[in-house]
Amino acid sequence: MSNIKSSNIRNFSIIAHIDHGKSTLADRLIEKTGLLASRQMQEQVLDSMDLERERGITIKLKNVRLNYKAKDGEEYILNLIDTPGHVDFNYEVSRSLAACEGALLIVDASQGIEAQTLANVYLALEQDLEIIPIINKIDLPSARPEEVKREIEDIIGIEAEDAPLISAKEGLNIDDVLEAIVKKVPAPKGDKNAPLKALIFDSYYDSYKGVVAYIRVFDGVLKPGMQIRMMATNKHYEVTEVGVTTSKQEPVDKLEAGDVGYVIANIKNVKDAQVGDTITDHNNPTAIPLPGYKEVVPMVYCGIYPAEGEDFNTVRDALEKLQVNDASLIFEPETSAALGFGFRCGFLGLLHMEIIQERLEREFDLNIVTTAPSVIYKVKTKSGEELSIQNPTNLPKETEIEYMEEPIVTATIMTPTDYVGAVMELCQNRRGVFINMEYLEETRVNLHYELPLNEVIYDFFDALKSKTRGYASLDYELKGYQQSDLVKLDILINGELVDAFSIIVHREKAYERGRSIAERLKEEIPRHQFAIPIQAVIGSKVIARETVRALRKDVLAKCYGGDITRKKKLLERQKEGKKRMRQIGSVEVPQEAFLAVLKYDDK
Amino acid sequence: MKDLGLYIHIPFCRSKCYYCDFVSFSGKETKIDEYTSFLLKEIELYKDILDEYRLKTIFIGGGTPSYIEGKYIGRILDKIYKSYDAGGLEEVTIEVNPGTLDEEKLKIYREYGINRVSIGVQTLNDNLLKAIGRTHTSLDFYNSLELLRKFGINNINADLIFGLPDQTLEDCEEALEKLAHLEIEHISYYSLILEERTLMDKWYNEGKIELPHEDEERKMYHKGIEILTSRGYSHYEISNFSKKGFECKHNLFYWKLKPYIGLGLAAHSNIHKKRFWNYNNFEDYYNSLKRDSFPIDGNEDIDHKMEMAEYLIMGLRLIEGINKKDFNERFNVDVDSIYKDVLNKYREQGLLYIDDQWIRFTKKGLDLSNIVYVDLLP
């Protein structure tokens, strides 16, 4: 690569609470180091997916290499590695942090430290990173940088006196940030003569090049022509290209210990270059992989079906395309009586599910219907069989079941003490078992709970955020399976059982859920020319009932002054809405209704 | 020579009603003179384009055309008569509000050939009038009516709205009975539709006002039909009733999708398989005309398929419905063959009545017309 020695390389990421200015700072760093002229720069370069930009969160990791001439007169390479910011992608965050020696911690000068900031700081501390606090948005009138500095020192316990005071938006004091990176982030260590050890922190599929894996080389050298081995899968490949990412991908001769870059090696599927895996030299392998690899297993399942008029095969093609890029997405064909042919898909969590759903709709322009999410239940039948059920429809009759088990997670919820009561109440409502509470400092605690996963996937994260005004953060890990009194809750619309609405719930929660789903469906299902009964049933017992009243009036206002165009627009909007409907018997059910079953009422 | 309907927009009002989303301004009286002169310019500009058309109807709407001085209306009509072929003119309507008329205005109206007046009564309940932002009372209406009759206006329409906040069925019945008793020739009986960005819509969303329940609102409609038809009115369009021979000829241009031109702010035109509409602000409207160019803000080409759909959508507003032969003559194709599925579906559902000659809404269909319309759109 270049003639810059490894002591002049700095590998770092940026961690921050949502909206504290991570992407804007990244833009400024890129601009300041002259990688892109500011006018040719798209706003927020790193978040390149539309969806990410809209949600203001980063989903896929990216990295970029910056050249910087520091005040000491030396040339430095700064590798910025971006991280996603949601619990579903916690593992990816920890892997990208593992590729760095330092992290910029951005704190909003008026809002101070927030829960997510802290959660990410702990992840960074676990990786032994040097943390450089940066105080952003000092241009705001409400900025209180001195207080925020003290907060950082008191709560996180890191020196903040010299923290750069910046405004990423205004481009203020960005040089201070670059200098701090050079001075404070340690240069990478590592032995370039040792056997190759490189960590994959991201990968994606390119239709021309195959899989491109973003890596951090810890030991050894990686160059084209080499045989490499993926330590998790033991598969080996010949390297065709290595390079670094600047404004584009630039091939280089080799990547050495300390470098961040990409590798291309004729890999056909991202599953074979999974985040967290260690790449080594096939002919001279290292004995021990880098720590921390874990296979990503889907935690949440749901059905994805083509909406009215959409083709099964187009949906499959789209899922396949997404999967090439997203190793954590899995799917297989299934059939629903109500929805016809579709797919059962597995996701890391609810957000991951929503993202995939939105990408199908936006990037592939598909009309799809998503069913209620489910986890994997274990069922022991009276005949002694053991079944894994992730689609409620496949659950055997209650009389045939000996017992059922459901997945349990250990959840860590970090919250300001003000909200402990609210959080405990929420966990209690979700069948949580309290384990303990630890004080992080006077005003902040970690609550540990055991929670059934099927409670967590129903809107738990949103409820937690809204009950704590966004301050609490959640982390969870699968603990194992536990026997539980579960029942299948079915929904009948206009007398017809709609299998896509069926869910598995704890018996004690069945009434409440049944009522809440029926109420929500009543709101979501548009009124028809006839009244539509909605019933929630367990077996043959009706536990809740609502009615969508018959539509009595659906007319346009007077057509004034010949403005037909406007009336037509109103009709066209109505028609657009109809397209997203799914015909069930004689009832047209909008796609939103299928999401209604996954919302709780306890916000 | 082809027939043409002409619409003139007067975007001024004493005050804005709470439910109104038409292009109209209050407090801009100083602009009236200027606006009129630009309107005259626009009339002039269309001279050549309309030389193969013959004016059948003129409709001066608003806003409140009766709010501005009579001389402006005179100037506008004078200019129209001088610029276009007005020999076959049958109907010249002006919209007025109770309390804005005087003898001087009416003299001018008569002088310039206005033979039909549409009064915005809305309701005869003074509390309701106040609550919806009208600045007149029921008494103003009676006075205006007297004046109109005195000046020999023998073709009068009264606009009524039902479904207003706190309105009762009795309110509606009473107003309809009174109007029928007064032998008003034409009554428009509209369902209140909350339009976006109106005060009333805002208040409704904020929970500050309540509207009659849908069932109650439909009762008001059905009762209205019952009262008026029993009083000798013909229910000829979803919201319109008239004594025999007093159907609004101008509106028939819209409902039958015949060519019409709209002049003035935000006015819409439909001619030569094209629909276009004017700027909705004074500045752009004036600037265009200063350059002698048409003040057109946007347009839409109507292809064959769309035209057929619009023909059905507009035409079904008429109670008699669509005449199959007319459709065939206009489009050279059978309506049954093109819309077979939709027509069958809604006949089965009881929204449409179809026989050898006609397609029309059933009573139920009139209440649920959008359901059919949506499926007719290409």
**Quick one: overall form of chain A?**
globular
Determine the mean pLDDT of chain A: 85
Q: Which class best fits the helix and strand makeup of chain B?
A: alpha/beta
Strands of the widest sheet of chain A, in order across it, are: 10-9-15-6-7-14-11-12
Describe the main β-sheet of chain A briefly.
8 strands, antiparallel
Number of helices of chain A: 14
Low-confidence stretches of chain A: 37-61
* Quaternary structure annotation: heterodimer
- The proportion of residues forming helix of chain A, as a percent range, comes to 10-25%
Give the total of beta strands of chain A.
32
Number of strands of chain B: 17
Poorly predicted segments of chain B: none
What is the terminal-to-terminal distance of chain A?
54 Å
Label the overall shape of chain B.
Answer: globular
What class, by secondary structure content of chain A? alpha+beta
The separation of the N and C termini of chain B measures: 32 Å
Largest sheet of chain B: 9 strands, mixed
The pair of chains with the biggest contact is: A-B, 23 and 44 residues
Task: Pick out its properties.
heterodimer, A: alpha+beta, eight-stranded antiparallel beta sheet, B: 16 helices
Could you characterize the architecture of this molecule?
- The complex is a heterodimer of chains A (603) and B (378).
- The termini of chain A are far apart.
- The longest helix of chain A is centred in the last third of the chain and has 18 residues, at 507-524.
- Helix content of chain A is 25%, strand content 33%.
- Chain A is of the alpha+beta class and 603 residues long.
- Chain B is α/β, with parallel strands linked by helices and 378 residues long.
- Chain B has helices at 32-45, 70-83, 103-111, 126-131, 138-150, 169-181, 199-205, 214-230, 249-255, 282-290, 304-315, 324-331, 335-338, 340-348, 363-367, 369-376; strands at 2-10, 12-13, 25-26, 53-62, 91-96, 116-122, 156-162, 186-191, 234-237, 240-242, 260-263, 268-271, 274-278, 296-301, 322-323, 352-354, 358-361.
- In chain B, the strands form four sheets. In chain B, strands 9-10-8-7-6-5-4-1-11 form a nine-stranded mixed sheet, sandwiched between helices. In chain B, strands 12-13-14 form a three-stranded antiparallel sheet, with no helix packed on it.
- The longest helix of chain B has 17 residues, at 214-230.
- Chain B starts with a strand and ends with a helix.
- At the A-B interface, helix 13 of A face strand 8, helix 8, helix 9, strand 12 and helix 11 of B.
